[in-house]
Amino acid sequence: METRSWLQRGKITEIVGPLGSGRTSLLVALLRDVTAGGGTAALVDADATFDPSTAARAGVVLERLLWIRGDGRRDVAVAALDLLARCPGFTLVALDAGETSPRLTVSQAFRLRQAARRADVALVIVGRERVAGAGAALAVRTRREALAWAGPCRRPTRLVGMRTAVQVVRNQGAPQAAVEHQWWTA
Amino acid sequence: MVDRVTRVACVWVDAFGAAAVERSEPALRESPLAVVAGTAPARRVTEANAAAREAGIRPLMGEAEAVARCPALLRRPAAEETVAAARRALLDACYGLSPRLEDAAPGVVFVDIAGLERLFGAEPQIAERLARASRSVGLAARVGVAATRTAARVAARLATRTAVIAAGDEAAALAPVDVRALDWPPAVAAALARWGIATLGELAALPRDGLAARLGAAGLMAHDVACGRDRTPFRPWTPPPFWEEAQALDWEIDTLLALEAVLERVLERLTARVAAAYLAADGLQLRLALLSGAHHARALALACPMDETRPLLTVLMHDLAARPPQGPVVGVAVQAHAVPRRAAPGVLGRPAAPAVRDLATVLSRLVALVGADNVSAVTVADSHHADAWMAAPLQPDTDAVATDDTNVTPALAFRRLRPPRAVTVETDAAGRPLAVRGALADVARVVRCAGPWRTSGEWWDADRWSREEWDVALDDTAVVRLLHDPVHDRWLFEGAYD
Fold first, then answer.
1. What is the mean pLDDT of residues B378-389?
2. Which of residues 40-79 of A touch B (CB under 8 A)?
3. How many CB atoms lie within 10 A of CB A97?
4. In Å, what is the CA distance from B233 to each residue of B144, B146, B149, B404?
5. Which residue on chain A is closest to B369 by alpha carbon?
6. B498 to chain A: which residues are within 8 Å by CB?
């Protein structure tokens, strides 16, 4: 799956899906693309659930990733996202909203998009539901398709992978692409 | 013996104890100021600034006599930390021009300037740069340049701002200098006056053996000064990893607003030093001395190296607001861990990193939002423990690269609960989970599970840990990791795969 094309500088991308659908894995893949390419990324983690060790295993260069650990308050996370969106030099600024989506008004979403455009920053919002509405240039929905287990069939010993389907649900100014599939390795 | 240093500059600060006090309280610069030591009524002047000396104040003078001579005289007690911070500041200022320094005494720094002409121009310009660098850290220094440290020190002592003695002219330059213009041990000064020695040239002409016989080691030292010779090797100074700035307070501070004003002055001095050496701070250590005798100590890792006062002050004040000192403050010390400042805006072909000024500003605002402990880059710790990581500064220009592209497979991310949540798990006879209560839904049936995956660590220590990991697919679509602690026989919900 080619994730680089989903990084649109100056625009908002939304990744939505239920817990266990692979939405965070997709975000980590984007962080890897940016940091391994020499860019600087910031992650606003509303619930502080990011796991650095799996991110490092995925290839994220942690030295180029600014991790803002929230205390669960969505308004604070959105304020942090707003600050970072106005700082030129970041290639990617992401908000991991977790299971509880923040309340984002239409005007807030458009202000965020304007800030991202001025600073030439790619904004990514990850959560259970879409919040940016028409402010997002691209929105994808993730869905789990399969799990892979290691060990005896009746008594496996470890989860080894997960297959995710990624469907584009909004792509401003372009036809919707076909569903893409991705295996994530545990 | 003349060592291999061929051109050396001496940076000299007159009445260093008073200059250190003026540095920490700049408003005192224009007033007559004396540093006093001892306990009343036997308190005596140890040093006086130029304005006080003009009014007739001299070292060793009793405080009462000094006040009688100059009623406007301001007195400050001698504070070791103030002098030590000023001494470090002078070294740091010189370190910005040359890496080879000698810390000869408080207020006296020798700088090896051999080869600096290509960078900074001729010797008078180098001397002027050193004087400016010293003033940038709040110390008005005089600079002398010569072939030997002794001659450079005499030149600095007699200069109005800078003085250069050309190579080979040391004897001629020093010969007409009045011996009374220099500080001598009392025995030497008395002997020179008794012998009618008026200039350094006359002192240099005296037989060395005779001086040694009459005055001992002090006589030999005086002869070396008169001849401009060095007898000791150059002892290079190595900058420590932490740069400290401190201020003792004559009064107690019990509000954060008042403490902010003091911290701002301390940080201004610290950042001036760090910036003069082309460095930036990537970590701060704050140590507040409390009236009770205890200390309030905090160590803060900065999310990116900074060299400006305002963002650093914001970080410190937000940390103090979250964890205020437990009592009035009587002393402030701030240490900065210095790292080389980012020199270039980026690397060709690599996306431009955020400008340091922009980054520092946004980070100080983020700290105000979420706290200093919650903004940083991280590194994975070298440990088998599950959630082992350490805060680290953001390094946009690092040369680190991801592991080999061809070997990295898209990894399944894990969302980790901090700390893991205790849950109730129903198990079958073999101990395999059947249902989970309190993880995400009230009750979730286990669709499929894998495990146990046993790990343990630090069994040699009191903090030993042991656990069994279970990967569990639940009927509410989540795939979670459960931990069973066999030691305490309890189940924990560690996080979810996503």
1. 87
2. 40, 47-71, 76, 79
3. 26
4. 19, 16, 10, 51
5. A76
6. 19-25
Rounded to two decimals, the pTM is: 0.68
| CATH number for the domain that contains residue A73 | 3.40.50.300
The partner residue sitting opposite A186, judged by closest CB among B388, B448, B497, is B497
CB proximity list for B399: less than 8 A, separation 6 or greater:
none
* Residue B458 token pair: 């630090």
CATH assignment of the domain containing B272: 3.30.1490.100
What is the DSSP code string of A11-55?
SEEEEE--TTSSHHHHHHHHHHHHHHTT--EEEEETT----HHHH
B477-495 pLDDT, tens digit each? 899 999 998 878 899 999 9
Which is higher by pLDDT, A156 or B241?
Answer: A156
Three-class secondary structure of residue B479 per DSSP: strand
Residue A159 contacts B where some CB pair is shorter than 8 Å:
yes
Residue written as token pair 């020093």: B174
Q: What is the ipTM score, two decimals?
A: 0.94
> B434 vs B340, which has greater pLDDT?
B434
- Tell me the chain A residues in contact with residue B351 when contact means C-beta distances shorter than 8 Å: 37-40, 91
Q: How far apart are CA A122 and CA A42, in angstroms?
A: 10
What whole-number percentage of chain B has pLDDT above 90?
44
Task: Tell me whether residue A155 is in a domain.
Answer: no
Answer whether B45's CB lies under 8 Å from B56's CB.
no
Does residue A159 belong to any structural domain of this protein?
no
Domain with B230, as residue range(s), is 1-28+61-239
Residues of chain A by 3-state class (helix, strand, coil), percent to 5: 30, 30, 40
Question: Do B412 and A186 lie within an 8 Å CB cutoff?
Answer: yes
What residues of chain B lie within 8 A of the CB of A48, using their CB? 374, 418
